[in-house]
Specification:
transmembrane helix, Rossmann fold, 23 helices, transferase, 9 strands, protein-phosphocysteine-sugar phosphotransferase activity
Length: 616
């Protein structure tokens, strides 16, 4: 349930936040130029109803449509919401912000489904005609639906919500909203409430009364300020105490409320403080009929006061100070009593990052159960990287599965994807919710050391499970690596010549056709096959299985090294993989690499039998 709300909130936020500048512009025009504004100007004040009625809903609907179906969805969303606006009387009706959050994504979904239906059935030469007319016709239909159905329904829903808020205010119950708002902020659930309910109702109230208290329920920086002040003055932990002043500046002046969430998470009982602080502030604002002209985003004191109506700046500031004072008074004794126990600040920050990732639908390093190493072909470099990392990790985290694949086939259940930097965009497109670790090479990269450290120290062992890839040894086909496939003591040549030599050796031994060699060179142009520690493993691109007769590996030794960019490879191992038959010997190579003595000897030895023994 929490994850679903987080995703829903993230989706709403993604529609509203890119357009928050337009909301602020509307708020400034309202605060400054209306009859009771700072500098009344009837001509300039006439701008604000058109911004509210047309600009804001169209921007939100277009953004929602684009999230689903890119540019075509954006146009569809804009067309559809105009029907809703017209259906309620334009500037005479209620703002269609909630309708925009529905119609925009729905319009994007409609055109996306149409495009999927037409895929492969588009008559040649009619592509532009069909693309343009489909948006026009479907957009018109949705605009008509919006005019007769969606607009009036949204008006009814908004009227009910507004009446509910009025009921809470009239019965002095609105302050109790803080009981839900403050924990929701820490759990990253606030977007679903703030952008889905508070903002549309706030806009409606601002149109009628010139201001709205709904803008003040979540953005008040006072409750967080009180918590941070209490930690600064009374925390016994030096790291926490020293970090609080900087956090105060970022939170209070910068409006980044996330900065105080770890201080709550390290001692969850402290959540009582911002709840009570916000309750008191909302009570004060309710009693004195306070509100803001527009949304205060980000929630800094600067944005908060800039949206205060003329003559109410002091009252708005007093509400912030009340929230901070109450929060401080409640948090202080809790922090004093819990100084001897509780979670560290660093652990709380890690917990927050996990929760934040979950709120975005993303995975987290600390909860990872499956790591996928991916290269262009999924054949050699990623296989060796996965094996090496698995061997390193299994002693401390046997519950984590480490596998490899091609970058275009990363599975949906992947928690962490490890790819070379040049393949990052392709990996992100294939696995958008996975944590992406970009590296220079698969065998010796600082990013892998950081990942290992986080996995081994950031989360305790969850199970005593044995790695899914069992430790039982399987016999290696003796024909995969043969003595004739090992050539030693070669003079240095260019990278292309070394790759060609490896491909020619694979061809001579009957593993592949000669057409495999240019594919190996093409693969090197896409991304380097140098994987670190003096080792390169050239192989073909992903579409070459038709010319691979059987799995084979060859090894050519260049004691003086081959230049692979800024690195030198003394061992060039050519691979022709059919299925996964070559993986076992790659695992053997990785095991040999764990011992640097063996690796260094392999770069200079003239003993083929010794190499065969190490890799068999």
């Amino acid at each position: 349930m929490k994850t679903a709300l987080q995703k829903f909130g993230k989706f709403l936020s993604a529609m509203v936040m890119p357009n928050i500048g337009a909301f602020i512009a509307w708020g400034f025009i309202t605060a400054i130029f209306i009859a009771d504004g700072w500098w009344p100007n009837e001509q300039l004040a006439s701008i604000q109803p058109y911004m509210l009625t047309y600009l804001l809903p169209i921007l939100i609907a277009a953004t929602g449509g684009r999230m689903i179906a890119k540019d075509r969805g954006m146009v569809m969303g804009a067309i559809a919401i105009v029907g809703c606006i017209a259906g309620v009387g334009g500037t005479e009706g209620q703002p269609m912000l909630m309708a925009a959050m529905i119609m925009g994504p729905f319009a994007g979904w409609v055109i996306k489904k149409f495009d999927q239906m037409m895929e492969g059935h588009m008559p040649a030469g009619f592509e532009m005609l069909i693309n343009n007319f489909s948006v026009g016709i479907l957009g018109m239909i949705l605009a008509i639906i919006g005019y007769y159905f969606i607009g009036p329904v949204m008006t009814g829903i908004l009227s009910v919500l507004s009446a509910g808020v009025a009921l809470l205010i009239n019965n002095s119950l609105l302050p109790l909203v803080a009981i839900f708002v403050e924990p929701a902020k820490v759990l990253f659930l606030n977007n679903a409430i703030n952008h889905g309910i508070f903002t549309p109702i706030g806009v409606e109230q601002a149109v009628e009364a010139g201001k709205s208290i709904m803008y003040m329920l979540e953005s008040n920086p006072g409750p967080g300020l009180g918590v941070l002040l209490a930690y600064w003055l009374f925390s016994a932990d030096k790291t926490t105490k020293d970090s609080a002043p900087g956090a105060i500046i970022i939170h209070f002046l910068g409006g980044i409320h996330e900065i105080y969430f770890p201080y709550i998470l390290m001692n969850p009982v402290v959540i009582i403080a911002p709840i009570l602080g916000n309750i008191c502030a909302i009570t004060f604002y309710t009693l004195f009929n306070c509100g803001l002209k527009g949304p205060a985003s980000p929630g800094s004191i600067i944005a908060y006061l800039s949206m205060a109506p003329k003559g109410e700046t002091l009252m708005v500031l007093l509400g912030v100070l009340i929230a901070a004072g109450v929060s401080f008074l409640v948090a202080s004794p809790i922090i004093k009593l819990s100084n001897a126990k509780g979670t560290s600040l660093e652990a709380a920050k890690d917990q927050m990052q996990t929760m934040k990732a979950q709120s975005k639908g993303q995975k987290s390093i600390l909860t990872a159960k499956k790591i996928v190493f991916a290269c262009d072909a999924g054949m050699g470099s990623s296989a060796m990287g996965a094996t090496k990392f698995r061997n390193r990790l299994k002693a401390v985290r046997p519950d984590i599965v480490v596998t490899n694949t091609s970058v275009d086939n990363i599975p949906s259940d992947c928690d962490i994807a490890v790819v070379q930097t040049v393949l990052a965009d392709r990996a992100r497109e294939c696995a958008p919710n996975a944590v992406l670790i970009t590296i220079g090479n698969f065998l010796a990269d600082p990013a892998l050391d950081d990942l290992f450290f986080q996995l081994s120290t950031g989360d305790p062992l969850m199970t005593e499970a044995v790695n899914e890839e069992t430790e039982t040894q399987t016999s290696i086909d003796p024909n995969i690596l043969v003595p004739e496939g090992i050539i030693l003591n070669q003079k240095s040549v260019t990278k292309e010549e070394a790759i060609t030599a490896a491909g020619q050796l694979l061809t001579d031994l009957g593993y592949v056709d000669k057409e495999y060699i240019p594919l190996m060179l093409e693969r090197e142009k896409i991304v380097t096959t140098y994987i670190g520690m003096g080792l390169a493993i050239p192989h073909g691109t992903t579409h070459d299985e038709g010319i691979i007769h059987k799995t084979g590996i060859v090894l050519i030794q260049y004691p003086e090294g081959i230049d692979f960019g800024d690195e030198k490879a003394q061992l060039v191992i050519g691979i022709a993989g059919k299925g996964g038959e070559h993986m076992e010997i790659l695992s053997k190579i990785c095991t040999a690499l764990e011992d640097e003595t063996i690796l260094e000897k392999m770069k200079t030895t003239d003993d083929k039998e010794w190499i065969m023994k190490q890799l068999s």
